[in-house]
């Protein structure tokens, strides 16, 4: 316990000072008089969780650490029933920064705070987000080590009027430890029942005093997680083996992860995962304190892509287009043919661009074994090339990224005599998350035999800077308590940068016109460095008082002005009524919003794709760019309205009851969240058609480059605003599209009792959540698949019951985790409910040393198997809400000095 803050006045003062939402002086939170004080959802200094007008759950750091996982996101999945996160085995950049969902909403509909300060977003935009998270740019929560946490407060209600953008589903506030003394070291090692997925973690927390008036608390963590494999051999690979194609029968040698399948579905590899956090404060005098906290972390995450097969089933359909799959050809000549007797082929390129080579090596008979004569002729001719010569067994790209995360916040807070006594907090912070991608064991097929096998496609970085000035004043307004008046301002700037990849990762090689795909196969490189930014200025006021001894009311409003798309104003009205000392009723009504990120509003990414045998440049461009606005005019001309990009707007209301009777405590809350104008990527726009529509001269052009030149000449456009887009055929951008309604129930409670000579606690937490799509959008409607994912991919019912028992030096935990039925929308089948049992046994060897052994998923439960597993080799659904690794075990040692 900290002992260097003897002044309780300063402790109460610091608790009252808002830091975006009212962060207290961390050193005082261990004061026994303030043990139940919360700081999330209220700016009143001494508000307890029990008296909060909105539901706030407090999860202690020790509760997180009584968990078999080493990733805080998986810990949250167990502790917060409405929190969902998936393994993301083959999901492009989403593998590196996993998108998570609170109450079934998008990752960027949850506001994440650290010590009450807004946490910067991750650098990854989840273009492959499983339908629910598509296009989202959320916070990289996995950068936070669990040992650094004193507690986590989860506000289960809309709170945009208090905290700004994103606080639609709720707010998660990660409060850092503030010990001024002591050293705690935790080591953990574990593995799955299958014997793969070995993982270890070494973590340490050190508390030091800063003289007699301050502290610094430092946490470091080193972690490593090996990948797992839960795959089956694909049907097209089996067809190749059955057909006698020898290189495919040796496919097991091409993947270092398994000797069972040529690609893997499983948890990615996480290597060199190193994190450090610090939290510090120093008391200048009785009423003023300096504080700072921050972090640095880095990790390498590697996942996999699909096996690029050489041959497949009888039609050759298992081949990888743009690399191996050629046109249907005459079996006697190897030239392209539409005749009935034409057969599948392996693609052949003419290196000098002439016509001396055949179009494809025929796959006659069963469509598996290449014609030996044609294969020999292609191999013998240096001018003719096929990847079957250099990579005869196919290949599995390995995709991943090096992620780096850092942040620093500094501030001063205290009490001023101005205006009769005003608490203040002035702070500044800056955070950054950067991912540099790599892809290995792949090709840029258009470069033919000269292609590298490893590429650096480029990277992305999100940088945010925030300044806060906040005040709190208590006013005697004739109520049962003083009226707490909080007000302040915030300025926030965010920047999103794309970094170009190496030239080969986006090159359009000499074979591109012959059907070979360009760019690094699987994840094409970024051709240019780009940068975009936006800023916002906000003002808020927050009023709260005990109007009577039984009734507490809270009113908040926030005005925010964004440079990119204008202003928004949001409000909140909440209250709690105490029917008795044991029973309370609470309710809230609020509006909320999510503002497009600078990445969503400004991302530029152009890649070359093979569409129906034709290479075309496709891109994602900024909506507010000249090209984006030109496309908006074109779309509007079709009569379905004009695309817009602005805030997602939410309407939240909730009502609940809280009961504390003897040793029982529970809360039951209903919520309803309606979100309109949700942000999504629109359909592709034909760029040439949009240019011709915009041309005031009514011209018709044969290419985009020709149209751009003509429109610049006649004054319709400024050519400088369209640099690098001469070959762009199609593009899309983020717009406001669809609307949803999410409703549900949260039941949270606990009971304490004595049993078997010791003390026991049973806790339970259940969530029922249901999302319906109210509107698919009229301009660029979302797909059937995304509607299904939003409505059915997550279980409606999820929860857990845990029994903790302490007797002497022995501590035991038994926890049952329940996941209701859901639909694997990526595979198109229903998955039944699952209950998994976790057990843990700990022994206090000495006063300093505790040893723990635990098992997660004791009975080795898996989700229902994929009935179409042979299609992509996916034995279990990747969208499983509890993963698909099966059971696992771990041992842990904890030493306190």
State which percent range the strand residues make up: 35-45%
Name the helicity range: 10-25%
Q: How large is the count of helical segments? A: 14
Assign the structural class, choosing from mainly alpha, mainly beta, alpha/beta, alpha+beta, or little secondary structure. mainly beta
Compute the number of strand runs: 41
Query: Which residues sit in consecutive blocks of at least 5 with pLDDT less than 50?
Result: 1-35, 253-260
Question: How large is the radius of gyration?
Answer: 29 Å
Question: How many strands, what sense, and barrel or not for the largest sheet?
Answer: 22 strands, antiparallel, barrel
Provide the fold topology:
Layout: H1 8-16, E1 56-60, H2 61-65, H3 72-79, E2 83-85, E3 100-102, E4 110-114, E5 117-118, E6 149-155, H4 160-163, E7 170-176, E8 183-192, E9 199-209, E10 214-225, H5 235-242, H6 246-249, E11 269-285, E12 288-304, E13 345-347, E14 349-350, E15 360-362, H7 372-380, E16 384-385, H8 387-390, E17 398-416, E18 422-440, E19 455-475, E20 483-500, E21 530-546, E22 551-562, E23 566-578, E24 583-594, H9 598-602, E25 605-611, E26 614-620, H10 626-636, E27 648-661, E28 664-676, E29 679-681, E30 685-686, H11 687-694, H12 704-713, E31 728-732, E32 734-736, E33 739-755, E34 758-775, H13 784-792, E35 797-807, E36 810-819, E37 822-824, E38 829-831, E39 834-844, E40 849-856, H14 869-872, E41 888-896
Parallel strand pairs: 4-7, 26-31
Antiparallel strand pairs: 1-6, 2-3, 4-5, 6-7, 8-9, 8-41, 9-10, 10-11, 11-12, 12-17, 13-15, 14-16, 17-18, 18-19, 19-20, 20-21, 21-22, 22-23, 23-24, 24-27, 25-26, 27-28, 28-33, 29-32, 30-31, 33-34, 34-35, 35-36, 36-39, 37-38, 39-40, 40-41
């Amino acid at each position: 316990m900290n002992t260097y803050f003897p002044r309780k006045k300063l402790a109460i003062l610091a608790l009252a000072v808002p830091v975006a939402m009212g962060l207290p002086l961390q050193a005082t939170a261990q004061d026994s008089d303030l043990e139940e004080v919360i700081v999330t959802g209220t700016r009143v200094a001494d508000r307890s969780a029990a008296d909060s007008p909105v539901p706030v759950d407090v999860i202690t750091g020790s509760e997180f650490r009584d968990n078999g996982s080493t990733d805080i996101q998986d810990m949250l999945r167990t502790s917060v029933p409405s929190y969902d996160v998936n393994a993301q085995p083959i999901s492009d950049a989403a593998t590196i920064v996993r998108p998570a969902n609170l109450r079934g909403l998008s990752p960027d509909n949850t506001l994440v705070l650290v010590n009450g300060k807004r946490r910067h977003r991750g650098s990854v935009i989840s273009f492959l987000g499983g339908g629910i998270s598509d296009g989202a740019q959320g916070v990289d929560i996995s950068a936070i080590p669990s040992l650094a946490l004193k507690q986590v407060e989860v506000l289960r209600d809309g709170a945009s009027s208090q905290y700004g953008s994103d606080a639609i589903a709720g707010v998660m506030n990660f409060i850092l430890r503030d010990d001024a003394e002591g050293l705690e070291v935790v080591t953990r090692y574990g593995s799955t029942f299958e014997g793969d997925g070995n993982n270890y973690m070494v973590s340490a927390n050190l508390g030091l005093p800063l003289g007699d008036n301050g502290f610094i608390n430092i946490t470091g963590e080193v972690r490593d997680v090996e990948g797992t494999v839960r795959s089956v051999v694909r049907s097209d690979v089996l067809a190749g083996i059955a057909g006698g194609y020898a290189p495919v029968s040796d496919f097991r040698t091409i993947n270092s992860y398994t000797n069972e399948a040529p690609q893997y579905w499983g948890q990615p590899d996480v290597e060199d995962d190193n994190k450090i956090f610090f939290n510090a404060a120093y008391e200048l005098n009785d009423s003023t304190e300096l504080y700072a906290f921050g972090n640095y972390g880095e990790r390498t995450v590697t996942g996999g892509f699909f096996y690029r097969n050489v041959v497949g089933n009888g039609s050759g359909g298992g081949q990888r287009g743009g690399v191996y799959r050629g046109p249907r050809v005459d079996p006697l000549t190897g030239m392209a043919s539409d005749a009935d007797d034409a057969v599948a082929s392996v693609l052949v390129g003419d290196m000098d661009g002439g016509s001396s080579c055949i179009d494809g090596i025929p796959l006659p008979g069963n469509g598996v074994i290449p014609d030996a004569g044609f294969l020999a002729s292609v191999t013998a001719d240096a001018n003719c090339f096929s990847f079957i010569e250099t990579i005869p067994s196919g290949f599995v790209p390995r995709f991943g990224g090096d992620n780096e995360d850092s942040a620093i916040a500094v501030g001063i807070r205290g009490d001023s005599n101005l205006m009769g006594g005003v608490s203040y907090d002035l702070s500044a912070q800056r955070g950054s998350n950067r991912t540099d991608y790599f892809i290995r064991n792949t090709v840029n097929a258009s470069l033919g035999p000269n292609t590298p096998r490893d590429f650096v496609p480029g990277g992305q970085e999100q940088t945010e800077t925030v300044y806060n000035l906040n005040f709190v004043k208590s006013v005697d307004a004739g109520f049962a308590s003083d009226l707490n008046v909080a007000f302040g301002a915030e300025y926030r700037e965010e920047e999103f940068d794309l970094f170009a990849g190496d030239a080969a990762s986006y090159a359009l090689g000499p074979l591109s016109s012959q059907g070979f795909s360009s760019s690094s196969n699987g994840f094409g490189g970024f051709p240019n460095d780009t940068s975009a930014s936006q800023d916002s200025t906000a003002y808020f006021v927050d009023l709260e008082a005990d109007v009577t001894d039984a009734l507490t009311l809270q009113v908040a409003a926030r005005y925010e002005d964004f440079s990119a798309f204008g202003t928004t104003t949001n409000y909140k009205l909440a209250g709690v009524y105490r029917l008795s000392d044991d029973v309370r009723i609470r309710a809230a009504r609020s509006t909320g919003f999510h503002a497009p990120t600078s990445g969503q509003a400004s991302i530029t990414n152009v890649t070359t794709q093979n569409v129906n045998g034709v290479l075309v440049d496709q891109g994602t461009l900024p909506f507010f760019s000249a090209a984006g606005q030109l496309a908006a005019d074109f779309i509007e001309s079709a009569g379905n309205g004009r695309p817009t990009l602005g805030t997602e707007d939410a309407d939240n209301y909730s009502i609940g009851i809280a009961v504390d009777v003897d040793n029982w405590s529970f809360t039951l809350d209903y919520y309803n969240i309606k979100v309109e104008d949700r942000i999504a990527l629109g359909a592709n726009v034909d760029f040439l058609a949009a240019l011709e529509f915009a041309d005031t001269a009514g011209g018709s052009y044969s290419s985009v480059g020709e149209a751009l030149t003509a429109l610049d000449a006649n004054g319709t456009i400024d050519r400088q605003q369209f640099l690098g887009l001469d070959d762009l055929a199609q593009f899309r951008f983020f717009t406001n599209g669809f609307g949803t309604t999410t409703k549900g129930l949260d039941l949270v409670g606990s009971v304490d009792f004595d049993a078997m000579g010791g003390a026991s606690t049973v806790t339970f937490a259940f969530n029922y959540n249901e999302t319906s799509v109210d509107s698919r959008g009229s301009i660029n409607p979302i797909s059937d698949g995304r509607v299904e994912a939003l409505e059915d991919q997550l279980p409606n019912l999820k929860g857990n019951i845990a029994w903790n028992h302490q007797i002497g030096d022995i501590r035991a935990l038994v926890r049952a985790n329940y996941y209701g039925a859901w639909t694997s929308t990526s595979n198109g089948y229903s998955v039944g409910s699952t209950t998994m049992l976790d057990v843990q046994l700990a022994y206090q060897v000495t006063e300093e040393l505790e040893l723990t052994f635990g098992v997660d998923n004791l009975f080795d439960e898996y989700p229902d198997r994929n009935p179409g597993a042979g299609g992509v080799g996916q034995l279990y659904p990747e969208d499983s809400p509890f993963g698909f690794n099966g059971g696992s075990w771990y041992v842990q040692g904890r030493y306190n000095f």
